[in-house]
Records
---
Amino acid sequence: MTGTTIGFVGLGGMGRGMAGSLLRAGHAVRVWNRSPEPVAALVAEGAEPAESLAEVFAADTVVSMLADDTAVERLLLDPALLAGARASLHVNMATVSLALAERAEELHAEHGIGYVAAPVLGRPPVAAAGQLNILAAGDGALLARAEPLFAAMGQRTWHFGDRPSQANTTKISVNFLLACAIESMAEACALAEANGVRPTDLIDLLTGTLFPGPVYSGYGAMVAERRYEPAGFRLPLGLKDVGLALDAGAVATVPLPFGSVLRDAFLDALAHGDGEKDWAAVASVARRRAGLPE
Amino acid sequence: MTGTTIGFVGLGGMGRGMAGSLLRAGHAVRVWNRSPEPVAALVAEGAEPAESLAEVFAADTVVSMLADDTAVERLLLDPALLAGARASLHVNMATVSLALAERAEELHAEHGIGYVAAPVLGRPPVAAAGQLNILAAGDGALLARAEPLFAAMGQRTWHFGDRPSQANTTKISVNFLLACAIESMAEACALAEANGVRPTDLIDLLTGTLFPGPVYSGYGAMVAERRYEPAGFRLPLGLKDVGLALDAGAVATVPLPFGSVLRDAFLDALAHGDGEKDWAAVASVARRRAGLPE
Amino acid sequence: MTGTTIGFVGLGGMGRGMAGSLLRAGHAVRVWNRSPEPVAALVAEGAEPAESLAEVFAADTVVSMLADDTAVERLLLDPALLAGARASLHVNMATVSLALAERAEELHAEHGIGYVAAPVLGRPPVAAAGQLNILAAGDGALLARAEPLFAAMGQRTWHFGDRPSQANTTKISVNFLLACAIESMAEACALAEANGVRPTDLIDLLTGTLFPGPVYSGYGAMVAERRYEPAGFRLPLGLKDVGLALDAGAVATVPLPFGSVLRDAFLDALAHGDGEKDWAAVASVARRRAGLPE
Amino acid sequence: MTGTTIGFVGLGGMGRGMAGSLLRAGHAVRVWNRSPEPVAALVAEGAEPAESLAEVFAADTVVSMLADDTAVERLLLDPALLAGARASLHVNMATVSLALAERAEELHAEHGIGYVAAPVLGRPPVAAAGQLNILAAGDGALLARAEPLFAAMGQRTWHFGDRPSQANTTKISVNFLLACAIESMAEACALAEANGVRPTDLIDLLTGTLFPGPVYSGYGAMVAERRYEPAGFRLPLGLKDVGLALDAGAVATVPLPFGSVLRDAFLDALAHGDGEKDWAAVASVARRRAGLPE
């Protein structure tokens, strides 16, 4: 194993594509995943399978893309694992809380391992194409080391400061804005429809004039057509991300009234059985409130 | 005066440019305004001054662009004026309530005058350039008659149905979405700043990735840089438009929780002296709630 | 007709009992109502029927108890009526907006008629028993003149200042607090039930300890038992009163976030067909949001 | 030491009075507290000091009154402590989350120890007087064993079911209602004041008519007079309790829009330096929103 081996943890929809991008860029990648299938798929693309997390952390650099705080905490914030690691850099690309980012940074420092945060914008197909937008924060020298990896996985790296949690703050803020855009369109479409305007006509106008771009056109179509399956991003994950924003606000005493409305709307959607749908299904709540037909 | 004369009422920032566009397209335009200065300016461009609203309504077609319900009600929904009118079509391009649209349509019908609604998207420079987006609704034959005027004033006409109030619903919905976008960015920027991320960095990321377009870049810059003067659209007008959305929701029993948050935030901004600033100054409320420095 | 005749306008559920209380206290009362039945009933108790509002305003003092701003505006704020009046005092006991109170005071002053506001607390049976709480505001000498009438109709008169609108502000604030208490219990009962606690047990605890009194026990029982019919106070009237609070807040730039939540909840209830139920039926919204069975 | 010894953990403002009540009722009480002063005070009243938590859990019955989930978790949910315990009953009287209640019940069961929840209503002087209201839930036989202790500490025991978390749900719901009442009065007082009505006049009316009882009179006076020090219950504890309600709602998918408003208001108050004041100081937020002088 050469010094350029990358350990990669977490081969879900996103991680699979990201690890694949690293492979295609010529990096040696040693992969680990809780379930074996994605490992096999990546081994077929040239990756080396790791038998354990310890083997992953024997690489120079570890990249991780796990689901949430709980997974990161349980799998990676393990003092024994970090104490035995040969890795000198861990790039955590998951969307995690600020509290976790700070704890992780501290714990890695205790074991002499650099820690940077690099959450991403983009869905699985974008990850597979190596076209993510990467939101990076942490020590400048460490980020410079990580940049070739970012270049393989993303179309652009955006920098937000030298504390890893700054990138997590940014990612949480972006997801908050996505949720706000969905709820805004949900309320506007309910208002339009109840007053005799076709939601699709409203969305066409919006995206053709003031609100171009993927959020208003993509989610707008879903909201206007009430098409929430299959889920691109499941509703409970949306609630989780709204919760990350509210928690980040609580720590810094930032009231987020839109965030509060969002939280209530997501709970309402879950209470009505939308847990397996795309998070845009939160728009069904605005319709139900107004007594519009399901 | 030929049959093609257009009467034009309301030469504010928007109306002035719209009447100018009609002139430049070769229409004969007879103009009226409460204060005389804009009349003189347009006469210099070739318009004919009207001494009274009756003279305006002696034209075939009347186009009006007044400030709000109150102005429309007082100046134009005057049974004596309408009874004496020779005009057979009134194109109301103002942002008014659904209730007013319906009353206006009815009253015009009683006097045998066609009434269509055609509120617009675009600020004064866009109006001056004849590049507005025009949201039209009303009887199809009447809209066909108005289309040459729309072509002179706008880059595109969007249709929303055969009841005039449908265009007003749409316009109110769009302004509601603008206000939602501002408040969303205000909360996100407060969250970012309180957690150590520069708001301008967040806005750059947004507009460079998921949220392109004039709303997020234009208002985003204002919010991130806290630059609310000079006002492009004054804050009390923003409150008025949020109120139009809430009223439209009340009539159709559509709860708008984001709208309710917006209303409270606009009142808060007014209570703190932001009445002369751009409506993006509502973002100062999110900062104040969080105890961030003014 | 002696100088002590009282003209009374508005014999709804409340006004009927109030006029009856005046009669029982020995006052001469001349009554008017839009529909004739309540007039006949009061004539049987000794009242004199008025053929017109002009006859009512020929009495020294007029007491009115109409449904809302619209009724007051249409029936009583009539310059011709006031110009011809012999009355020198009008006691308006209805729940009206601050704007109407101010306009009424001004218009009466123009015609040399004193105007005081005296909205009440209490439901029809309390009015019938002459046990209302009377919230009075206006010129001190006028209130002194009205006090014998208040003594006949109420158990106590509370004073709030020398501008009539101060009493209306107070009444609006009290109704706002009633609505807040209902929504609070609605949310708490939904929370309790969803976590396995019987709402009636919660309400028993509340009223037996920290929250004694008619509001928590009366509305608490309705909410816990989901018993909203027959309506003591219809839901659309509740929405109207919440609207009065929001309007009063808008004029004085007072954001009322609880008021905003209430408005949305009342609209939601109306959208789901609860318009004929007691306003406590707004509690059904909290249950629906949570997916609890109807 | 006989079989009737009670181990008591947590001698804060509440616990001190409760342990004193047990002593006065003739119970043998062995006390433990993190800081030594309250221990000394109770020893002077006849208590036996415990050197360790193990000594407390060597009693037959343990009563605990700790500050929050964190304290309970760290001090009492210790498998080693529970494994070595002789106690067969733990009565947890603190206000804790439903999640903690469930975890605690399970963990105690694993070690053969009965666990019941019995949070209380009442402030320190009420605790000292043995006049608390006790909200009890858990196994019936265990509650029967605890009843003599409840009788010593409280004026009445209220039962909410056989799962301990039901008592915690109830306590959380009551505190939620207290916070709602405070915010309601805060908004109403801001509305009244901004429209020229003295808040004290409004509160006098409320407590003299529809809203008798300690909550509206006690907190009403604090809100109307803006008197938030010394703190009876500190504002961050209020935020914590609102958070418990929101968390309980999240688990059971119960949206709590009033709770969301409360959370934002408490954060706003904290952001403005009110962390050492009574939680009624959240009312200062309603004034600030309205631009009323501090």
---
Amino acid sequence: MGDTGNNDDSHVLTMKTVNPRAVEMEYAVRGPIVTRAVELGKELAAGAQKPFSKVLQANIGDCHATGQSPITFIRQVVACCTCPDLIDTANFPDDVRNKAKRILKGCKGESAGSYSASAGIDVIRQDIARYIHLRDDVPSKMEDIILCTGASDGIKTVLNLLMTGKDGNQRAGIMIPVPQYPLYSATLTEFNACPIPYYLDEDNKWGLDVGELKRALKEAKGRCIPRAICIINPGNPTGQVLSRENIESVIKFAYEEKLMILADEVYQHNIWAAGSQFFSFKKVMTEMEGGKYSKMELASFMSASKGYMGECGFRGGYAEIVNLQPDVKAILLKSISAKLCPPILGQVVIDTIVNPPVEGDTSFEVFQKEKSQVLALLKKKAQIVTELFNSIEGIKCNEVMGAMYAFPRIFLPPKAVAAAKALKQSPDFFYCLQLLEKTGLCTVPGSGFGEKPDTYHFRITILPKLEEMQAVLATFKDFHLSFLNEYK
Amino acid sequence: MGDTGNNDDSHVLTMKTVNPRAVEMEYAVRGPIVTRAVELGKELAAGAQKPFSKVLQANIGDCHATGQSPITFIRQVVACCTCPDLIDTANFPDDVRNKAKRILKGCKGESAGSYSASAGIDVIRQDIARYIHLRDDVPSKMEDIILCTGASDGIKTVLNLLMTGKDGNQRAGIMIPVPQYPLYSATLTEFNACPIPYYLDEDNKWGLDVGELKRALKEAKGRCIPRAICIINPGNPTGQVLSRENIESVIKFAYEEKLMILADEVYQHNIWAAGSQFFSFKKVMTEMEGGKYSKMELASFMSASKGYMGECGFRGGYAEIVNLQPDVKAILLKSISAKLCPPILGQVVIDTIVNPPVEGDTSFEVFQKEKSQVLALLKKKAQIVTELFNSIEGIKCNEVMGAMYAFPRIFLPPKAVAAAKALKQSPDFFYCLQLLEKTGLCTVPGSGFGEKPDTYHFRITILPKLEEMQAVLATFKDFHLSFLNEYK
């Protein structure tokens, strides 16, 4: 058996026989530009001369990777759950120790090394329900909560439930925004489902337009069985924060069209724009028109990876899934049973977020200070980025109202578009690759998220350190102007 | 929208519209008997009178839940990676501190809160390759290693790659043992693949018989496209340890039939029988007949959840996947990218297992003592369980040669079988439910793993504490004899 050639019949798996959905699946946030950025980093480390001294990873919402410090309280609780001896020996605040003890009591054998129920540890599910109740002023119950291995896992779990198990025009259709976080398109490809893309309105702060939702759904009928609509709020990659009125109109649309609502609300702590506020879809759905919509099936997703905590590596997340039929809920719980359970320490991190120190607790002041510092800095960077992009010729950027990304539109000269197409690259991929090679700034081309035809964008996180961000944005401006000049 | 009835059209998801594969999927290890056991525990806690004072969970390989203590070294390294301050303040041994520092250097931003590459942290992949090399005396390379969220996640990743993306008799066929750990059947149902069940030979220590493999494969042709054979060694639920000769015969069969080998080797540290030894499929494949088979595509799976560590809650695991075509390997890596990464602390636990303290290290003696105590106790319980079952009329149990389970055969009287069938229960489900209700012992019916027609079994773990195990096995004997008497 040789290792040469791609379609030799000495291998079980060749490009002809490997799962075609895995071949088709794309996840741009970790795509070829990122691979090239990693290579460049290694070249620099090996002493290569480049026009920059450091690769700046602004491609992924990975807070700690770009210098954010962990919140002390979170890590102390996790450490105590890991080594219970530390509860007595590590000189941690009493509220840390009490919280760890309480969670460990909820673990089998009082060990973070045991499996939990597949839906998660009961006491943490209770804490989540209480958090949601306080946040929304609308009741929530622990039976509606499942813990997950990051929000991604929860999203896949609910999408799996919505599949029809059939092919062709009998496949499940799922409405997804364009641009969208590519987990959605990747999962729909993997599941052989039918994406129903609807465009966000760039000219209207990336809001949702019901006319466009109707157009998209109408166009999809006959191609699939529409089952659900996904909304990302605050938006990824767009940074929008939906108004309450906009949310209401989406809920009415979903009700009329009998779609389940999947609300990706992982950036609920990341609200920057003056006058903007986070409203959960569940809150709005429950309160509008005297409860007319309050029985709709809805799943909301939350993560330990974003907000002020940014604990991506712990893979903590949860979903609140309301109004399922009891039999369907049993199927949901069965469907997650073979995965055993989400990581216990990821669940612990979630608990620290939904049950943080409150006034009077020993950890409260430090916690509050660390949290507000992180959020204040992100807010400042959101403003800086928005302003900078809008100060440059050939770029237009909606305000980063929330989340962790800017998604500026770049107006590329026809010659640049032609040059890209000659290389069989999307024009914004072509642009982002040159940006990387010339400045060390790693971003993700808009084509990886989807965009209206003949419009080009890129996504850049607001996570790098302020001084690095300022330096690189200055370089960026030079790059952009010289790019325009080169292809004018 | 009401919440009554099962097929009302006010819900998007009803039993008619929910994913039929999720309805069909079964995972008996967390099935109805376990649900009833949890209820019984709550009834006892509420003061109900039962013939027993405690529910004994012997249904799942969850070491810490049943009283096993964590290995100190593992938890200290994890705690240091969580709170790097502890490296200097917690008075942990120097080797613990150095290992934590080294791993943190491999994390982005030196934080366990950042994402790793989807395949895992480089330094940990290197350590795994070194561990495999030392174990097998056969080279291993980090590029062939991917970290996973428990072994289950790795198994699903490789099975996904083997799917054809097609329906009917064009579906992928995967050979799985009967009895088998039901993750395999659950995943194949979820993926719409075709299981090709082959029987393990109960009369021959649950070994694999090539004649039976050929029969199973022949019977499957025309129904599907056979792609791979899964072997669990040491066996779950059977507790067998395959001989080198048996492994060689399976490899030859897979070679001739052009099947990829999926070797579930998560119990590689759990070898109890005198004269038994763990041989990895990769080692045997590489060494037999001068390397004739050494280029076969093979995946081997390992877990942090079993062995002597039993750290189930950390969801750590890895797969070594060898001899993939380079293009296919790129697809594999892309296919895991949207999951972002396995939990960092689960990866850290894996590192402590593949890179443990060695002689001369400060932690060595304590580590060695704790490890050998856990393994010695499990070995003792494996012997006790085997002996006890074989001393009871109407029960026959192969030696628990390895892993964490006994899978005794129970010879049920025809009247018991008839009584079960009248209730539409499998006879061993009927038996296990009565066992639970009368003794508090929670086991899993053999039907959840598959078995030859008209044979009945149950799976019981050897994990409960020795004294509890002994007490409950005495009760078990009484139950069994009175059951036989009732239905004779």
